[in-house]
Amino acid sequence: MSASKEDIVNRIKESKKILIGIGEEFSNKDISYQSSNVYQIFKEKKEKELEDDKVDWMIETIKNYYIHSEIGIDHLQTGQAYRELFNIIQDKDYFIVNMNTDGLLEKVGFNHEKIVYPCGRHNQYQCCNNCNNKVVDADEIDKEIIALICDKQVKLRDIKQPRCIQCGENLVYNSVQNSNYCEEGYLEQWKRYTEWTSLTLNQELCVLELGVNFKYPTVIRWPFEKIAFINNKAHFIRINEKFNQVSSELANKAITVKESAKAFLLR
Known about the structure:
The chain is an alpha/beta fold. Helix content is about 35%, strand content about 15%. It has two domains: about 1-30 and about 75-120 and about 180-265, TPP-binding domain (Rossmann fold, 3-Layer(aba) Sandwich), CATH 3.40.50.1220; about 35-75 and about 120-175, no CATH class. The chain has helices at about 5-15, 35-50, 60-70, 75-90, 140-150, 185-200, 220-230, 260-265, and strands at about 15-20, 95-100, 115, 120-125, 135, 170-175, 205-210, 235-240, 255. The protein is elongated, with a radius of gyration of 21 Å. It comes from Candidatus Galacturonatibacter soehngenii.
């Protein structure tokens, strides 16, 4: 069954609990950061100092800084969509599973204790070898790196990539894209998530899936379908530009929209 945005918003507001899955359609991984002031400084320094690609590890830090501190949340389509989502559900009992690593949800007001990032987050570092199965906060480290890039007296070659204090290898952002991904970064929140879902049985539950594809179907798509199926009081909403289909078992309790979830929220 299809529905208008108004119908879906009403369905959400009528529900007691809201389970939200946010997928790859909300990714900012391909965002253009070339207009970043910090990137322009980096680029000019690199050309002037005749540096090779060995200093390009800083680009991920610059990109992360650009998204969080330079461009502004309301200048990102993703940020605008998140704000609209927050306006719809802010007073509800919700939990969010987000497949993206940019950590922007909190910037529009979502409670960090009600969000889990199973694919990691770029506000945490881990050892590239995951030698200690730990993550460390990235904020202060990144601020120092950005400050050094912008310091006219500091050459790029003298800026050191952050290192693991245990084994001395490079620190990298905590992301499932790493071959040695450290899952410890999200497990505490995952426990909160599973405890929350255990309390939704026989509750008025809205399962809202936004732009989730098939890269990791065992994280959101299949579990969300199961949660909606076993709960007789659940409603299932899937909004997806390409993969909005649902199984026949959910047909009578599902609303599907074949549209970009970001575009849908920003109607």
